Amino acid sequence: MTDLQGRLAVMETTCRKILLGIACLGILAGSALAQGELRFCLRSEPKTFDPLQVEDESSGAIRYLTGGVLVRLNRQTQALEPELAQSWKVSKDGKQITFKLRSGLSFSDGTAFSAEDVAYTVKQLMDPALHSPTGDTFRSGPGNVETNIISATQISITFPAPVAGLDRQFDQVAILSAHSAKKEMAVLGPFMVSDYKPGSTVLLKRNPNYWKTDAQGRKLPYLDSIKLDIQPNRDVEMLRFKRGEIDLINTLDSEYFDKLAATSPQLVHDAGPSLDSEQMWFNEVARAPLPAYKKTWFRSANFRRAISAAINRDDLARVVFRGHAQAAVGPVSPANKFWFNARLKPETHSSDAALKALQGEGFRLENGTLKDVGGNAVVFSIITNSGNKYRERMATMIQEDLQKIGIQVNVVTLDFPSLIERMTQTFDYEAVLLGLTNVGLDPSEQMNVWLSSSENHQWNPSEKTPETAWEAEIDRLMRAQASSADAKKRKESFDRVQEIAVEQAPFIYLVNRNALSAVAATVQGATPVILVPQTYWDADRLTIEQQGATAAK
Amino acid sequence: MLGRKIARHGLAIVATVLLGGLLSAALMRLAPGFDADEAELDPHLNAASIQALRQARLEQHNIFRFYFHSLQRAAHGDLGTSISLRQPVSVLLRERAPLTLRLVGIGLLLSWAVAMALALSAAWLRVSAYDALTTVISGTFLCIPAAVLALLSVLWNVPGALAIGLIVFPRVYRYARNLLGKAYSLPHIITARAKGLSELRILFWHVVPVAGPQLLAVAGVSVSIAVGAAIPVEALCGLAGVGQLAWQAALARDLPLLTNLTILVTLVTLLANSGADVIGHILRGHEA
């Protein structure tokens, strides 16, 4: 062998070693990427990372992914499951709950978890100065909340008055550390906030101390990280999904759903009717700056029911939502398995029946115009938020439906702050068309909508005393269901509330939108459901098949 | 003379910025929905929490008092807290200003490069067909709304700075073309050309000194056009800059944030215009 041949042989061996090394690194990198990064969009800037102060959707998403809770509502089965608490017991009077906690758990920063953290969280949550929306749902009566640490793994919490669905309310309470210097950034959930670029991204990294394991004993979550891009523009979100820059769209519009379904049907999911409803209501506020005769119409249950009957809900679902919605029956969507009143049936659309009912109230049709007993033509405006094409189309279809019975409807779109000002402060409106997003299943979440004294009693807020007998009855029933720990009795009370709501029609429920989502083929294990968060409710068990693969491919 | 001019500009800037801020705050106060907060619709909130939300906005009811307090705080480096984003305004501006500066800077460079290339070539060539072609190109971009250009940049996945450049370019081109056209038709430049002086020598020795000060004024105006264009571009392209912040602040009726943004944008615009004016003055002085 010549010297040159020898050197060539050494070079060849060296090159082989280098190539082998590169290949090994590639394999290692590949296995690391197999866990992957999930990417999706938040539609607004998260207002807070403090889980107790969450009020917006984006902050709620971060709380869901990072916060550890004592109990968790399984978004698929709608059943309550143990999380940080192994077991729990609610007292018969519904005032006290006792949790038996798991032992040996740690926050993301290594601080040990104990009953002291639960007591600290409850104290913070119930601080009246915090004005926490989550805390407000526990505030059923005046007085202080008492916590009693029985042991490091056992705690009882006593409320001054019974709290409806007490255990379920803890689904929204992310436990804070009483001792961590990182405050709310020390978490017990599957992920933790790693980086935040305001207006741009929130990066969540796997919590190394997350306590859950899968059936094979592997530590969860599978994902390395979740990248949340802040993207308010839905068109851009859709474009980025098609380009493979994001892996899922949690709530998809029906128009986009159909467009995507036409090219990639395997990527879209229609989980059926959601808890969200679209509804309209008339202004029944006595001090509203409206003519007296209009107030008389709007405060008449027969008038409201006739309007309800004149609206073709099936057409709204078919035309506006392209079939991805269902005619609404009442205040509760059929998707809410336990609380929906199955005795209620969808309103039968009939212009003739509507007109007949109105004639019974003294209205008459003259030359195609409906007039009241005083000879006033029935004309009113529906306001809705501008930029929401579905509501604008619904309002236009309602306009056409009511035209058939001689009612002239003017559709007015306003930007959201103007709309809220009219609804909550000036009461300068006639009818509103809006949607209601229901996150929770329990009717106690709607207490402030149904109680006549509440600011959120939209059709007639802050009544000093109930202005009608049926509102007084709803008040009584809502309080009865809230103060009972007996699920059967609560259901009976709330069933009656639903029946009164349909009979009196203070809200005219129109449709329940379907839960539509899109998930890239690279995301493994996603099973979209109707409850928020529809696509990533089991984020700790999701995996990404191939990092960087184009979703739409 | 120069010192007096700079002082006059300085005073005008301070007065305009203060007045601009007050007018912006007053307009926002009078806007429908000023007093409303979307959070009030949260059914979880009880009456006390809703009242607390309303109370938080009470200071803003008297706009003069709000503005006076804001200026007082600003003098101590506190620009207040954004109502909608719940973060200090100074932090928001510090985090987002670099992106907008980059977008506006690159956009301006692009727009001026394209506009000057077209304007100079049209002035040099003096061919009516070419002149018409450049006019049609700039006219076309002038007719396309800024939002459409922003959406196209999203659709074609091109940088937002290009959209800003294309929004500003036709405005700059029109002025530059006219100024250069006028300069090239001056008798001494026609004579210089007839004598066979090189085009570059004519440009830098005869045309630029004539059109330069006016082009500087256009440069000042183009900064304000670019800053204005950044708002729809950032809002539609999802770019987290000051423009997007201004859009969100207006939609949320976020008075502290919007007042500060107005002051900032007014300040940038006035500084650009005054800077151009002062430099033009210096150049004219040298020329004289």
What are the defining features of this structure?
A: 553 residues, alpha+beta, 16 helices, disordered C terminus, B: 288 residues
Which regions of chain A are unreliable across 5 or more consecutive residues at pLDDT < 50? 21-34, 547-553
Termini Cα gap of chain A: 54 Å
The dominant shape of chain B is: elongated
Which value, in Å, is the CA radius of gyration of chain B?
Answer: 23 Å
Percent of residues in helices of chain A: 25-40%
Give a short account of the largest sheet of chain A: 7 strands, mixed
Strand content of chain B: under 5%
Uncertain residue segments of chain B: none
Continuous helix count of chain A: 16
The SS-based structural class of chain A is alpha+beta
Roughly what is the average pLDDT of chain B, rounded to an integer?
88
Number of helical segments of chain B? Answer: 11
Largest sheet of chain B: none
| Shape by Cα distribution of chain A | globular
Strand content of chain A is: 15-25%
Query: Quaternary arrangement of the chains shown?
Result: heterodimer
The largest contact between protein chains, plus residue counts on each side, is: A-B, 45 and 46 residues
Q: Measured on Cα atoms, how large is the radius of gyration of chain A?
A: 28 Å
How many β-strand runs of chain A? Answer: 21
The end-to-end span of chain B amounts to 14 Å
Helix content bin of chain B: over 70%
Write a structural description.
- The complex is a heterodimer of chains A (553) and B (288).
- Chain A is 32% helix and 21% strand.
- Chain A is α+β, with helices and mostly antiparallel strands and 553 residues long.
- In chain A, strand 16 (379-385), helix 12 and strand 17 (408-414) form a beta-alpha-beta unit.
- Helices cover 80% and strands 0% of the residues of chain B.
- Chain B is built from 11 helices and no strands.
- Chain B has helices spanning 2-30, 47-56, 63-75, 89-125, 128-143, 146-155, 160-184, 187-194, 199-237, 242-252, 255-287.
- In chain B, helix 8 packs across helix 9.
- Classes of the chains: A alpha+beta (553), B mainly alpha (288).
- Chains A and B meet through helix 4, helix 6, helix 13 and helix 14 of A and helix 2, helix 4, helix 6, helix 9 and helix 10 of B.
